Amino acid sequence: MKKPHIDYPINDDTLYRLADLFKVFGDPTRIRILYILSVEELCVQDIADRLSMTQSAISHQLRVLKQMSLVKFRRDGKTIFYSLADSHVATIMNQGLEHVTEE
C-alpha cells in the first residue's frame, strides 16, 4: 500500500524555527521558570529565590526565553519584571502537561 505524500504548509525556515522553539522546552529549568511565570509576574531575584538558584543562572535562562519570544519584561524603576509573552506560551505549557500526565 502506497503511503500518501504529505505536503507541509510551511517552509523549511519555519520548520527549523519550530524545532528551535521545542528545543527551548527541553530544559527543565526553563520549564520551571515558565511555570512560575504563568502564575505571576516576577523579578529575577524572586525567580531565583523560588527555584533556589542564582540570579546569574536565572538571567541566563531568561535571555534564552526572551530570544525565543516566550517571556516579556517591563521595567519598574530599577527592577525588571518578567511574565509570559502571551497566552500561546501558557497554552503550550498546559497542553504539554496534559499530554505527559494522561494515562
From TrEMBL:
<dbReference type="Pfam" id="PF01022">
    <property type="entry name" value="HTH_5"/>
</dbReference>
<protein>
    <submittedName>
        <fullName>Metalloregulator ArsR/SmtB family transcription factor</fullName>
    </submittedName>
</protein>
<dbReference type="InterPro" id="IPR036388">
    <property type="entry name" value="WH-like_DNA-bd_sf"/>
</dbReference>
<dbReference type="InterPro" id="IPR018334">
    <property type="entry name" value="ArsR_HTH"/>
</dbReference>
<feature type="domain" description="HTH arsR-type">
    <location>
        <begin position="10"/>
        <end position="103"/>
    </location>
</feature>
<dbReference type="InterPro" id="IPR036390">
    <property type="entry name" value="WH_DNA-bd_sf"/>
</dbReference>
<keyword id="KW-0804">Transcription</keyword>
<dbReference type="InterPro" id="IPR051011">
    <property type="entry name" value="Metal_resp_trans_reg"/>
</dbReference>
<dbReference type="InterPro" id="IPR001845">
    <property type="entry name" value="HTH_ArsR_DNA-bd_dom"/>
</dbReference>
<keyword id="KW-0238">DNA-binding</keyword>
<keyword id="KW-0105">Cadmium resistance</keyword>
<dbReference type="InterPro" id="IPR011991">
    <property type="entry name" value="ArsR-like_HTH"/>
</dbReference>
<keyword id="KW-0805">Transcription regulation</keyword>
